[in-house]
Task: structure prediction
Amino acid sequence: MSLLVVGSVALDNITTPKGQVSDSLGGSATYFSVAASKVSKVHMVGVVGEDFAEIHLEKLRNCGIDMNGLYVDKGKTFRWTGIYDEDFSDPETISTELNVFADFSPNLPDNYCNLPYIFLGNIHPALQLQVAEQMKKTALLAADTMNFWIEGERKKLLDVIKNINMLFLNELELRLLTGLRSPLAGAEKLLSWGPEWVVLKRGVYGSMLVGKDDELFVLPAYPTKDIIDPTGAGDSFGGGMMGYISRENQLNKETIRTGLVYGTVAASFCIEGFSIDRLMNATDTEFQNRLEKLKEMTRF
Amino acid sequence: MSLLVVGSVALDNITTPKGQVSDSLGGSATYFSVAASKVSKVHMVGVVGEDFAEIHLEKLRNCGIDMNGLYVDKGKTFRWTGIYDEDFSDPETISTELNVFADFSPNLPDNYCNLPYIFLGNIHPALQLQVAEQMKKTALLAADTMNFWIEGERKKLLDVIKNINMLFLNELELRLLTGLRSPLAGAEKLLSWGPEWVVLKRGVYGSMLVGKDDELFVLPAYPTKDIIDPTGAGDSFGGGMMGYISRENQLNKETIRTGLVYGTVAASFCIEGFSIDRLMNATDTEFQNRLEKLKEMTRF
Result:
């Protein structure tokens, strides 16, 4: 079944120990869509400015992403400038220019409102709620968030959390949100607030799934020697995961676990290049090989 | 087959967010032996002072540990005083009093020299070499180390690494030793220096095994909500792991992987209490339950 993502589409200026790029295609909806497109059909909702180059649109189209929900507004595209140090962990944000994203109001094309699998990328919780309210046939409603909203829009964010099935967040965000340092205790607290599943993103250490039915699944990241740029890894993870789940159109334990495996492999390609290029160009064979290798390196 | 450990036996003064203990039984050989004793027969070589309380000896004896190699010297037992913050990560060392450990020279009882499985705990590399040279029928010679030796005794440590089969270390130590930030690249560099296996200890994120025959195994930690004191977790991990391997008396891929699983479970008990008590008191049923749960929470 089809998958909907609502999130940012950005032009990034990124410096990492491995290089530097300017006006590079990025954003949560972009990474999510490209990853999901490896596995399933995905529909993207977002906004760009008049400066958004045709070449970017062409790339996304070539991935098979439906972009009827990508609006072009007067003004400039959302821009993020950041620097990673040698740890490739939390980047320093040099500037965030919201531009057309400041007035983004996700009104969905009519036919999108019936899509069953939905990922609310990291945008203002009020906008996440606005999308959630438009959906009519939800099978799985998932959302991502970030420290900015946890600190500044906590009440609205708790509304979102109450109304979704699955929350994606990282360990720092889990602490900020729950006040708990134990990932397991924090995730269980979040479950008591509404969602059925919490997906904890742990960067180079992988991910953890905690579910209401006592489900606990811990998966390492796919080890790589060549990190180029970690930007978009979390959204690629979400895209690979939800792409698989929507393709299987099932919400049982096995499907969701395998979803995390697909997400892990998608993220492993994402970080091996700037922007979406390495992920986009990963062949089916490469993708399958990593799925198998991840299985082999975790079995006992 | 039997297992030998050479390392420190200490009295620790530890403060964590969960409490405080004084003159608490600790040390690398202690934690290793108690963990190994859950699975296999272990012989301990170390030194304590005249102040070492009989109750500690009794505890270790009750675990079934052979302590014919534990010497009592004139003077005081090695003491470590440390404080953990709320992250339970790198503790602040308040003081290290070597005491009798300063002149420790591990001369093994004759019958120990034929033991096939050996763990050289985190002691001076010259002492590790001294033990290695006394061993006559080695099946697996493993060593642990720490930043202090990496920075101060690099040449001797490289000698150790050249002569062992398996090196245990954490991520920071791997970086210090190899200059590489990628765990996989760092481990592969270490393999080129001698050992057949590198076991990377990643704290709450688990462990990674990298072997010369393209072996790569990544295992999460056993998630726990109740960390009390992480002291000894790495040595308990080593003890559980080598206890299992020595019991099976095999060095194939499956045995070593399952060894890491046993080590992970041993470490999970260690951190749920001060000193060795929680680990020592874990029943066979509890141990088996966690082995099964770890399998269930990592399969897909």
Observations:
- The longest strand of chain A covers residues 19-26.
- Chain A has a mean pLDDT of 96.
- The domain at 3-296 of chain A is CATH 3.40.1190.20 (UDP-N-acetylmuramoyl-L-alanine:D-glutamate ligase).
